[in-house]
Design a protein that fits this description.
Blueprint: E1 2-3, H1 6-11, H2 14-21, E2 30-37, E3 43-50, H3 54-69, H4 103-107, H5 121-125
Antiparallel strand pairs: 1-3, 2-3
Length: 172
C-alpha cells in the first residue's frame, strides 16, 4: 500500500486484509512486514510473502484474488500493488548476518556466508547456477521501468522474463 499518510493507509483496510491473508491454508512459508516513507514523502506499507511451492501460492491466491479484482481499489488516494513470485529453493539466494535475518533465513536451511562483495557473488550463491547458465531474454522484456506512468485508477500488469533476478539480501 502506498498513501499520503499512515492514517490514509490504515483506512484502506490493508492491515486487516494482510492479517487475515496470513491465516488458513496455503499461507506463505515466511513473510516480512515493512514500512517506509519514500522519496516522494508517501507512506508505504509492504507485506512480502514467500512461497517455494507454486501450488500453495496459487491456492492462496484463489482465496484472496477478490480483493485485487475489486474496482474499489482503483479509487481513493492510496495505491495498491502486488508482485507475485514463487521461487523454488534451488533458485533462492540470500545473504544475511546472524543479527539481521529476513523471513526466508528463518524458514529455510540457509547458512550465513562470507562470500560477497565481488562481481558474481550473488550468482555464486544460487544453487542452480552451478549447473545452469540462468540465461534470459534480457531486461528489454520488462521495458523501461523508469518511464512515467499514470497509475491512478488503472491496473498495470508486467510479466517477468524467465530467470529474472530478485535480490533482497538483508536489505533492512
Amino acid at each position: 500500500m502506498q498513501g499520503p499518510s499512515d492514517e490514509a493507509v490504515a483506512r484502506s483496510g490493508f492491515a486487516d486484509w494482510s492479517a487475515a491473508a496470513l491465516q488458513g491454508p496455503n499461507v506463505p512459508l515466511a513473510f516480512d512486514r515493512l514500512r517506509f516513507v519514500d522519496e516522494a514523502g508517501l507512506v508505504n506499507q509492504v507485506l512480502t510473502a514467500h512461497w517455494t511451492d507454486t501450488t500453495h501460492q496459487l491456492r492462496w491466491r484463489a482465496r484472496h484474488d477478490a480483493r485485487w479484482a475489486d474496482d474499489a481499489r482503483l479509487r481513493g488516494n492510496c495505491g495498491h500493488w502486488r508482485e507475485l513470485l514463487a521461487v523454488p529453493i534451488k533458485r533462492i539466494e540470500t545473504l544475511y548476518w546472524p543479527d539481521c535475518k529476513p523471513a526466508l533465513a528463518h524458514a529455510l536451511p540457509i547458512k550465513p556466508t562470507l562470500y560477497g562483495g565481488y562481481f558474481g557473488a550473488v550468482r555464486d550463491r544460487i544453487p542452480l547456477a552451478a549447473c545452469d547458465t540462468l540465461a534470459t531474454a534480457g531486461s528489454a522484456a520488462l521495458g523501461d521501468s523508469r518511464a512515467a506512468r499514470d497509475g491512478a485508477g488503472r491496473r498495470w500488469r508486467i510479466t517477468a522474463p524467465h530467470n529474472l533476478a530478485v535480490i533482497r539480501s538483508a536489505s533492512y
